Amino acid sequence: MRRRERTEILIQGSENIAKEFAKEIAMKYKVTVIQKPESALVLLKTRETAKKSLFYLGEMLVTECTVQIKDSIGIGIVKGHQGTSGRAGT
Hints:
Radius of gyration: 16 Å
Helix content: 25-40%
Shape: elongated
Strand order of the largest sheet: 1-2-3
């Protein structure tokens, strides 16, 4: 399965799919939390259709964290304020 397909499944699927996937990873590999989950704001960029110019529509609250599995570092970002229960390595 390609990364794009896997990401699409996680985005479109239920939260339970992501939780089960995280549990499987945590059982197979040592997960090192580099940055614990914390809230952040991201700017939402969009393109104005008439002039084709970019502008910022507003901000969105997200929860982000960083983990390491073997030699790979990954960043997780989800919309809204999320707790840490059920997350791999937390």
